[in-house]
Amino acid sequence: MPQRRGLAFLLLTPAFALFALLTLYPLGRVLALSFFKTEYGFEDAVFVGLDNYAVLAADSFFRQATWNTVVFTLLATAGELGLGLMLALLVSRNFPGRFLVIPTLVAPFVLSTMVVTAIWSAWFHYDFGFLNNALRAAHLPPVAWLFDPDIALLSIVLIDVWQTAPLTFLILLAGLQSIPAEVHEAARIDGATPRQILLRITLPLLTPHMMLAALLRSIDSFKLFDKVYALTGGGPGQATETLSMYVYRQGFKFFDVGLASAAAVVMVIVAGILAGLYATKIIGGRSDVA
Amino acid sequence: MLRNTLRITAVYILTAIILLPIAWMIATSLKPAGEYVSTSVNLLPKAATLQHYRQLIADDIFGKVLNSVIVSCGATLLALAAGFPAAYALARLSLPRRLDAVFLVFVLVIKLVPPIVLAIPLYQVLRALGLLDTLAGLILVYQIYALPFAIWMLLGFVRDVPRAYEEAAVLDGASLWQMLTRVILPLMRPGLIATGVFLLILCWNEFAYALLFIQSPSKFTLPTYIATLITEDETFWGRLAAIGFLASLPIFALVGVVQRGLTRGFAGGLR
Amino acid sequence: MRILAAAVLAGMSFWGAVSAQAEKLVIAGRDGAYATALKLAVAEYKAKNPGLEIEQLELTGGGLLEKATIAMREKSGAYDVIMLDDPWAVEFMGRGWLADLDKLGGGVAEDFVKPARDVSRQPYGTGAHYAVPFVGNVEMFAYRKDLFEKHGLAKPASWTAVLDAAKTIAAKEPGVAGVVFRGKKGNPIVTGFLPILWAHGGNVVGPDGKASLDSEAALKALNLWLALKPFAPKGVETYDATEVRDALGQGTAAMSIELWPAWAGSLDDAEKSKVAGKVEIMPAPGETAGPAPMLGSWLVAIPASSANQAKARDFIDFLTSKDMQKKLALEAGSPPTRASVYQDADVTAKYRWYPAQLAALQAAQPRPRIADWSKVETILGDYLQLALIGQMEPKKALVEANEKISRAIRP
Question: What is the DSSP letter of A290?
């Protein structure tokens, strides 16, 4: 019905207007700027074609930042999925005090990121931090959490897992609770062991939820900036430099806005591909759940 | 059952470990400045004090809370107001279900772009609209990810509404407007609430854009205020811990709603 | 019907917010202690000027730079008074973004310490005045007098002496590091290194405007600074201001090569520090060249696009007057920029290190007067850290840094 269609498009207008103003325009501008060499905007900008992208490809700092970001994303997502899954499984059946435990497990997620970063910066301090104090009290050697180049990134992974495992926990718990009880009952009646139930029934049924959680966390981890900026500034050396920090430094320390824009475009493309892969998996997997 | 006892013990131990940094934070909010730095593992303050909480009140913390409430609620309402009709239109336009995935991807990719990158063009947009350094400007900027998120979540809930209700309404002679507000909206209430709460939580702790576009202390939201406690010369641990604790309480209260919403959303098959 | 009413209401309130404007000054300033000081001045100025509205923004260093730059670049007239860090002055003045204070009347008094006055002029040191020095931030040096006396060490007169003292204390005083400094990439690590570089006669950028890090003097300075690391607490590679202050304040470090006025106050506060009264503050020592403490002053200026320049000028004069500087020093701990205030008896009674601070200010060296200092600082910061964590040979670090800096400096 043509009239229906017209109405439908009318309904879409407010959303689309906001979207065009706040997303299409800025993104378009960033994309356009990536083909220029400029310090700020389009005045005084010099067209350089794909030059900025060539510079990125050749820049070892960019490669290191990409590597760090990918490693961080993989480790953090795996950690959050793992911890979230374990907590969800442990908590899925009722037990005394459950109604208190669930909100408590969610607590780290509701804190402001700045507060989380501040807490852990205090905890990671070599001489006065809680972690090393505890280690020393247990007669164990203290750890160079933030200034050992091999450990620094892992320390940041730890903070991220602590802060956002609650989110994956919530998603997976909801997923677990949406599995009809009859499914487990039937399996038990058929004589399946708890382990078999877990591996052959529960986990496969949970797969779309795990994919969703993994997607949400991957995209967010990819963006890592605040924690690194506050804790190590990208150091020691380049050990914790991430793509977002690279964009920030090029744009706001070196005032090479063209290069920063190119790096941002690369980030968006890579993340888009990643997200697209996940999404098709989720959509493809859905037919099993219906 | 031994297995059950083991499971419960494991849960409580894990919970205690996860809670530890937060317990530390709360304890720090009660410690006087001299006790911040030490080599001991003792969490408890030796001379507990409420001075940091008092200082927060002196810093006009209620004003900041109010600002945060205004911005979070405003952004949520705007996203729902623009997103609900859009979700309805998209659902009824019978576009392929794959569109859901597109929205999801889109939302996340948008959230992915570092705020710094979008800062300058957004700054120009806000200045052209005269909304720099205003709460209204922030409410607008938050639509960047609030709106796609709202549409994505609402799409699923809209599809849940059986067409039979709409057809009946059409037969009764209802206009589009009446159908949306009198029929669909009430049926979608739980979904709208769950989406709304999710969006509230999303906006409450947002600080990257808030830092960029809000300058006057009177308009600070909570995250912007928190940022002022971490200066290059000194970190004000007491107040930081105190406000960190207080600012998280409203969200904490809403977690139950989110959990129920998620469960309900997944019960009909993953969207 | 309800929606129509709501829309009208929204429209009216929006309009109301936009239109009501009395005479108004907008001040873009820093946050933290700077904001506290500014607030005091603003309150008094408002009392003297009823009917004048003043809005004071409290911004982080980075935020202030961003917003001031954007506002002046777009000539938006958003701010009438801005605070600026002295390295920013080069670009701001060079692009004509600031109002000429000689033309506005009054210039800048000679009571202000000369190095701070020099950076407020374009060309440097000789030209017209575009800013007034507001906060007398200067990098100083601190050491534990009690520990030095205990081990028979004299007040360090050179950086070599500092290194020797560090060795001695680290050997003889268990649990106390000889020295502490900031190693975090970027501004922190560079700021700690510069006085050492300058004291050896080295320079990041030479008088001819060309990169000059590839020199004997620079290598000596870098080697001396690296030699300090074994006597510093573990983890200096990521130390920033908070960690250095804590190390000094908790008594776990005997010297700090860098001490800013903002850090000095809490050291004598018995509630927060374990070393109250035991720390001696002085201008950093020299080596082959004389002491060259780094100037870190904050200036106040008027954007050329401001519509209230006369009033802004009046406010600036009020803010930096002798009486106000004394008041801000006594009540907010804001370091003055007028020599006369440093010599005031009430002020020196409260801050015992002010004579040292004045000496430091008068001998202060500003950072190189180039518009691209931010880029240079970032590059230098990267390479200093690579050398510090041992991932690059000192000589190679200097050569590579020098090369990148040459390419970054615009002619």
Answer: -
Contact across the interface for A127 and C66, Cβ inside 8 Å: no
Q: Determine whether the interchain pair B232/C245 forms a contact, defined as Cβ–Cβ distance below 8 Å.
A: no
The model's pTM is 0.84
* Sequence-ordered list of residues with C-beta below 8 angstroms from that of B72, at least 6 positions apart, any chain: B200, B203, B204
Element (H, E) at C83: strand C81-85
> Which residues in chain C are contacts of A147 at CB distance < 8 A?
183, 234-238, 389
DSSP B222: H
| Amino acid residing at B98 | R
User: How far is it, in rounded angstroms, from Cα B67 to Cα C398?
Assistant: 50
Q: How many C-alpha atoms does A11 have within 13 Å on its Cβ side?
A: 23
Q: By three-state DSSP, how is residue B207 classified?
A: coil
CB-CB contact of C49 with C350 (8 Å): no
Closest residue in B to A260 (Cα–Cα): B117
The C-alpha angle C141, C146, C149, rounded to 5 degrees, equals 100
Q: Which residues of C touch A236 (CB under 8 A)?
A: 237-238, 385, 389
> How do beta strands C23-30 and C52-59 pair?
parallel
Q: What ipTM was assigned to the predicted interfaces of this complex?
A: 0.83
Residues β-bridged to residue C133? C299
Q: Which helix (H) or strand (E) holds B85?
A: helix B61-92
Per-residue tokens: A82: 């793992």
Q: How many beta carbons lie within 10 A of that of residue A16, not counting itself?
A: 15
Does residue C235 belong to the interface with chain A, where contact is any CB pair within 8 Å? yes
C283-309 burial string, b = 16+ CB within 10 Å, else e? bbbbbeeebbbbbbbbbbbbbbbbebb
At residue A191, φ and ψ (nearest 5 deg) are 90, 15
Q: Per-residue confidence of chain A (290 residues) as pLDDT tens digits?
A: 445 667 777 788 888 888 888 888 888 888 999 999 887 777 778 898 899 999 999 988 899 999 999 999 999 999 999 999 999 998 888 888 888 888 888 889 888 888 999 899 889 988 888 899 999 999 999 898 988 888 999 999 999 999 999 989 988 988 888 888 888 888 888 888 888 888 888 888 888 889 888 888 888 898 888 888 888 888 788 889 999 889 888 887 888 888 999 999 998 888 888 777 777 776 665 433 33
- The per-residue b/e assignment along C26-53, b for 16 or more CB within 10 angstroms, e otherwise, is bbbbbbbbbbebbebbbeebeeebeebe
B153 at A interface, C-beta within 8 A: no
Alpha carbons B74 and B78: distance in angstroms, whole number: 6
- Hey, what's the torsion of the CAs at B224, B230, B232, B237, to 10 degrees? 160
β partners of residue C283: C140
Which residues of chain A are at the C interface, by a Cβ-Cβ cutoff of 8 Å? 40, 125-128, 144, 146-147, 149, 231-237, 249, 252-255
> Which among B29, B22, B266 has a CA at the least distance from the CA of B157?
B266
Task: Name the burial class of residue B14, with classes exposed (0-12), middle (13-18) and buried (19+) by CB atoms within 10 angstroms of its CB.
Answer: middle
